[in-house]
């Protein structure tokens, strides 16, 4: 396909190409005084600036407040500063703001620190898993919702906070939903600690008044705690649902947006949205004025494939028009690489950012004027009856489409190209189905129990997960040995599992590996499994890639194969002895990866993750050992950990997953694709044309009854 080919229907109006003279909002040479002036003027022009006084009054008068305002109106960056200025951090208290995504917490904190003229980590900071940029002086703290939930494990009353803002609540991530229930309770407990003061949310119709329901926490006996102000915030929120849940909380709407975003639809549905993405990128590049492009795709593989094709097609353009630089951003990309998308666009170039929904909410990426939205997202899906979680590509909701278009129009007017007809937009769901209704709950349940919630089905969820999903997850935790018969954390396994920031099945594998003398191998395995697609196979070199993979392939399966890759990279670096400079290491490793058809981004992610979980395991005092060449021991540990994902070969050649009874096949990317092992364990089930299992290793069927009698003795 020629990049200059115009495809009817995206509705772009033609502009004469203006390929030179791109400007970036982040000129590093700008004099700091001028920059401060500019920022202060920008702040004053935000829609939220005109309602500062009113918002502060509303927060003073209401313990819980819902704030809804257009994308880019200034909620995330300004409201915490208004509250700080109004004295909410007196007595050394902190204002905490949660974000569903790490990248948003980090970049917004950076922006607010700059607006306040302070160094990041002083008055303004952020805290995300494995990265804490706060100090004793931090008063405005951005963090992920998951991190605040973990903080609650250490301080159930979250006593350092005077205000907690749950931002982007429409995303309805599991941690956000759970936090809402917990924070309601923290508010009640804190109020009770000050002479049973009445809540300031006065709603005669509310059946959720303070005291109507008993606290999940033990009665508070101790010092008086200041009241907690709770603010729920989003651009695309059905305020009614939240208000009803939060005892009739008041909703405030911030009117207006800073710059308009023109929305364009295709005339017809697109049969191949990736093709349409490519056409639209080049159409914008060749026909529209200056400005960077943000494209939403569903995952790493798709992003990397579009990135390659953009570069191939660029070569076909006249020399003066090849001025595109591409940057990917997805969750498993190491954070320094994620941050590259926020850097100023090189002079004379147009930046094209290829992103998953990681860049959908909260972030402001300087320079973005055009958004291309094919309308799809990869979402978790869970079938509690089969106990199987999978990732599927589904259409976005209207709320997501709105958030995506809101990434343009933040510094100047923008355009959003939705690659589907307007009639399709009308058919989209209004909001995204809450994650808690479509994922395995064992992780969150383990955390709730660790927080002291005894009656998980009775927990005050904003929308209750199905009873069967709760029961299945409790059953899974019990089978993993995390819970006792009384549904308490077991000692020490359950407590150890709750301390590890991983899915329980992986926490169990790590705790278990310690007693199988193969902790090192299991840490590598879990780290490698956390990265998407370690092997990389370009279409035009698929035979070479297959040969390269054979050098690492183990007849025992994918887990040992992944360990082989990890260790080969380590040995290679060791031989080159380049530990003096991380940059040099990275460069050499990238070259090695390229030669061996390994995805260097994924390997770097795995190496980072390995270091982080190893740190946790060491802190917990787990017995650190390697089983060396005795991989039998390691495979027995795989069976003892992942026994819920075992499959038996059937006479006709397919496999049957033992826990769910589903017919599955080994994925073509597995090293065991051609083998005829009788019994295997796996880590992932993907549904494409049929059900495939990925990350597969051979085990002995008898190990299951020996090592997991709690399940296989029952199942017999
Ligand atoms: N890193 C940044 N660089 C430049 N401008 C920024 C940056 N962050 C924020 N801004 C400016 O501040 C405005 C308000 O951003 P803010 O994140 O507070 O809005 P919001 O209402 O929370 O939006 P959303 O609902 O999309 O999260 C942006 O539209 C943009 O003009």
From TrEMBL:
It holds the Pfam family WHD_HA2. It catalyses: ATP + H2O = ADP + phosphate + H(+). Belongs to the DEAD box helicase family. DEAH subfamily. The keyword Magnesium does not apply. The lineage of its organism: Eukaryota, Viridiplantae, Streptophyta, Embryophyta, Tracheophyta. Residues 273-452 form the Helicase C-terminal domain. It is an enzyme of class 3 (hydrolase). Residues 1-30 have a biased composition (Polar residues). Keywords: ATP-binding, Helicase, Hydrolase, mRNA processing, mRNA splicing, Nucleotide-binding, Spliceosome. Its EC number is 3.6.4.13. This is RNA helicase. Residues 1-45, 193-216 are annotated as: Disordered. It comes from Punica granatum (Pomegranate). Residues 56-255 form the Helicase ATP-binding domain. One of its GO terms (molecular function) is double-stranded RNA binding. GO terms for cellular component: nucleolus; spliceosomal complex. GO terms for biological process: mRNA processing; positive regulation of transcription by RNA polymerase I; RNA splicing.
